[in-house]
Design goal:
Elements (H helix, E strand, L loop, with lengths): L34 E4 L2 E4 L8 E4 L4 E4 L24 E4 L2 E6 L2 E6 L6 E5 L6 E8 L2 E12 L2 E12 L8 E7 L4 E8 L2 E9 L6 E10 L4 E11 L4 E7 L2 E8 L6 E7 L5 E8 L10 E4 L4 E6 L5 E7 L5 E8 L4 E9 L2 E11 L5 E10 L5 E8 L1
Antiparallel strand pairs: 1-2, 2-3, 3-4, 5-6, 6-7, 7-8, 9-10, 10-11, 11-12, 13-14, 14-15, 15-16, 17-18, 18-19, 19-20, 21-22, 22-23, 23-24, 25-26, 26-27, 27-28
The structure holds zinc ion.
């Protein structure tokens, strides 16, 4: 790996402490760029939408992010319009960033002053994501290549300077990930951590999970941990907290759901906890499994599809809250997030109307302890 320049352009970045203005919020990375928040205002861009929406907690108002007088909010002239191939949003240094095609753009948090920040390589492939963090843009994408009949996924991670738009992007990582892969990343201080969970063969019964750390100052990548996991078919994630890293994986899509935790200490020792088995109620079709800062969240629609059962557990498998909420026909959970003691779920809803038109809606709901529910935002497109 070449080391042409130091990634640290701002002397204030030479700390491992969290910098609220310049560090990405790791708790939102599971939402894959669909949601971010600043000063009590949520910014929301559903997957596939061309608009960015907001919900202001203080005033309980919502809508497209545009205050232009006489705007109909229905075409590209609207301040909330991001473009057809955008891959989500992120707040950085009090601006809202997004990628569209081969460019990174930003706007003020009130929707004004759209500007192109720089050009980038177009993110062709599956699960494209980005992070703006400490003066740089990081992009991620899985590229699918068919080789001798087998489909191979390659994870690409690239980095671009925000200050020097002329400087070309730099490839940080590019490696094949087997026939099926999922990945998670988090940024902590001057390190990019990413976890790859890959299927070992086409039967999807055996997985290998590997956690990497990329030191953005030294330009070095190393493997922190790797293990062959039987059946981590419901996904994996990780978090760094008080000097340790917890790697969490879940399996049992077709059998009995379970989760398992590996704890990596400072000196490289690994402690294994679990598997914690969670009963059959959340196995099978429609089941979702998410790891947040403190919680493990499971959900599954009931057989009739009109209700959704959810269960929030701590990292020892103990139930923190459990309940059922009404579910609209055609609703699917995209993600669960934690917010303080509460959880937030995002559902995307598709059903056909009487005139054969498709109705597509997104809804964000907050569920607090004791089960009270509040709809934060509902978007129909
Ligand atoms: Zn508008």
């Amino acid at each position: 790996m070449s080391c042409i320049h130091s990634a640290v352009t701002n002397p204030g970045f030479q700390t491992e402490e969290y910098l609220a203005q310049y560090d990405m919020k790791n708790e939102y990375t599971q939402a894959q760029g669909m949601i971010d928040k600043e000063n009590g205002i949520y910014y929301f861009c559903p997957l596939g939408s061309v608009y960015v929406y907001y919900y202001d907690e203080e005033t309980d108002t919502q809508g497209k992010l545009c205050a232009k007088p006489e705007c109909t909010h229905e075409d590209a002239s609207c301040n909330a319009y991001l473009g057809v191939s955008n891959i989500g949003i992120q707040i950085y240094d009090h601006s809202l960033y997004w990628i569209q095609g081969g460019s990174l753009y930003r706007m003020d948090l009130n929707g004004e002053n759209h500007e192109e920040v720089r050009t980038i390589d177009v993110l062709y492939g599956v699960d494209p994501l980005f992070a703006v963090h400490r003066g740089f843009l990081y992009t991620f994408v899985l590229q699918n290549e068919v080789q001798q009949g087998d489909s191979e996924m390659t994870l690409w991670i690239r980095r671009y300077s925000l200050d020097d738009a002329e400087q070309a992007g730099q490839t940080l990582y590019q490696e094949e990930q087997g026939s099926l892969a999922s990945y998670r990343y988090h940024m902590y201080g001057n390190s990019l951590y990413f976890l790859c969970n890959q299927a070992m063969d086409d039967t999807y019964t055996e997985y290998e999970a590997t956690l990497y750390v990329y030191d953005t100052e030294a330009d070095q990548c190393e493997v922190l941990w790797s293990e062959n996991q039987l059946l981590w078919d419901m996904g994996a994630d990780f978090k760094k907290d008080k000097g340790t890293i917890q790697i969490m994986g879940a399996g049992g899509y077709r059998t009995i759901p379970f989760f398992q935790i590996y704890i990596l200490g400072d000196s490289g020792e690994v402690q294994k906890e679990g598997p914690f088995y969670l009963g059959e109620a959340y196995a099978g079709r429609g089941s979702r499994f998410y790891f947040t800062r403190d919680y493990i969240i499971q959900s599954k629609p009931d057989a009739g599809g009109e209700g959704l059962r959810y269960c929030v557990r701590d990292d020892q498998g103990e139930i923190v809250m459990e309940g059922e909420c009404a579910q609209e026909y055609g609703a699917e959970i995209d993600y669960w997030l934690q917010e303080g003691q509460d959880v937030i779920m995002e559902q995307n809803i598709t059903h056909s109307l009487d005139d054969n038109q498709l109705m597509h809606a997104y809804q964000i709901t907050r569920i607090s302890e004791y089960g009270s529910q509040q709809e934060l935002l509902r978007v129909e497109e």
